[in-house]
Every structure is written in C-alpha cells, then in structure tokens.
Design brief:
globular, 14 helices, mainly alpha, 340 residues
Length: 340
Amino acid sequence: MRFLRLDPMMVKLILVVLLATFLPARGHFVAFFEWLTMAAIALLFFMHGAKLSREKIIAGGGHWRLHLWVMFSTFVLFPAIGLLFAWWHPLPVSADIYTGFLYLCILPATVQSAIALTSLAGGNVAAAVCSASASSLLGVFISPLLVGLVMDIHSDAANGGLEQIGKIMLQLLLPFVLGHLSRRWIAGWVERHRGLIGKTDQASILLVVYSAFSEAVVNGIWSRVGAGTLLYIVAGSLGLLFIVLLINLLASRLFGFNRADEITILFCGSKKSLANGVPMANILFPSAAVGIIVLPLMIFHQVQLMVCSMLAQRYKNAGLKLAAEASEEGKTTTSTPSQK
C-alpha cells in the first residue's frame, strides 16, 4: 500500500493551503509575494534550462513517431476529454471546478516525474527526456492559445492572448533559454547541486499556491468548495487519468511500439505539469479565480503520482521477471549440448 502515501510535496501543498486559509496575504504583503514568486519562477526555469543537456535531446530526438503520439496525447487527446467532461458535467460541482479540469487538460506534461517513472519502469529514458522537455517548451505557446480557444474566461490582460503569451515567454521561456545558453559555464555546478533545482521547484510552486489561495480565501473559496466537492475532484481525476492511460496503452500496442517505448508513452503522455500550470494560471486568469482553477490540478498531480508510481513498479517487477526467465533460458540452452 506504499503508493497510497501522500508524497512530501503534496503534504507541503496542503500545509500551504491551510496557511493561506488562516493567514492569507493582505495589503502590502500581496505585492511582496507577487514579486518574490516571479523571481523564484524565473530562477526555477533558468536552472531547468541549465540542467538540460543537448546530448540527451539529440539522443532521444530521432524517435519521431513516439514524440508525435505523446504530443497528440498531451495537447489533443487531453483537451478533447476535458471539453467532453465540461460539456457532460457528470459530477455535481460548480462550473469553476470544470474550468479547472479543462485548464489542467491543456497543460504540458511534467518533466521530472515523467522521466523518473520511465526510468524506474525500464522505459526509453532518452526519448522521455526529449519528449517531456519538448512538451514543456511547446506548452509555453500552445497552452495559452488553447485557453483562448476553448475557455470562456478573460484574463486581466488588455490585449488578450498575444499579451498573455508574451508574459509567459518573458517569465518562463526567457529564463529557460538563458539557463541553457549558460550551460557551458555552469553545467558542472548544476550537476553537483541538482538538489537545489528540486528545492527551487518546490519553493516556487508553494509561493504561487500561497499567493493564489490567499486571494481565493479573501474572495470566499471555501464557501464554494466543501468536502463533497473535493471527493468529486478526486473521482474526476481518477477517471480522467484512467481513460488517458488506457488509450495510450492501446495506441502504443496498436502502432507496434516496443515495451520500452510503451512505457515512455504511458508516463510522458499522461502527465500534467504543476510546475508550469500554477505560474501560468497566475498570468492567464484573474487573480480572484486562480485558487479554485488550480485546485483540480493540485489534486490530479497527487493522483497521477500515486497511480503511475504503482504502475511503474508493476512494469519494473514484470521486467525483472522477464530478465530472470531469459537468464534461465540462456543457462538451459548452454547446458543442453554438454548433456548430449
């Protein structure tokens, strides 16, 4: 039952939501946390850019059929299911929750967890690095465009989609590119301090969540979201993840991908990025709506980690069993001629 445990990041998110509930930022602290959050996010994407090696991108970049399907799953299949979900309204929750589900469906995939789970399960790690990184970068452009196409929520930006994309590029893409260009000078330091990237990642997300939920608490989020709604979000997240995993599994076998590529498709094509989604929501949506919109994303993040960790462990065990059987067959084959 280890997969049922909350991961440490989810525990921190819960604590931050509780802190924002009882001690929300008000007055001058709101502007202070906004600037602090922007600085933390810029540092985070700078570090990610410095960490990404060009050799790994080239090594996994040639597997175009796999990458096309992962992009299809991330930016076509997920949004299509999200639209169906929002139109059907199978769960008795407010429209804002369905907006949150639709928003999580148009986000790019995670990078760290997709690669880590692919590695644990015995998948194609080079392809996972390339695919997840490409998804994260493309999401800077595609996700805001999809927000404009499929969501009826207007941001504070005066000029709409183009201004939103410009803000996202300035806050997320520019630091990433600068970090990657600086790699020749700081790659060694980054490799020695990889834990710092994880801490920066978590700190930036926690800051954004605190700011978003402070605003949401001030605007009465908990009068609209109760325990029943949270259970509905968990059920919706499980249903969404199950459908996407099943379609990716069937597609990988239908199109003849090998076992390692099947694993990569499952874990790269079923993830949604909390690290990209929370700061992006801060730019795309009115501040009063951000808290409730990112709530399904936060819960889906935990659900995908628990379910996919269990799935990765099953793949790993199956791989060890196959390797043991192959080893036994090899011993039998080599011993048979001497017996004759």
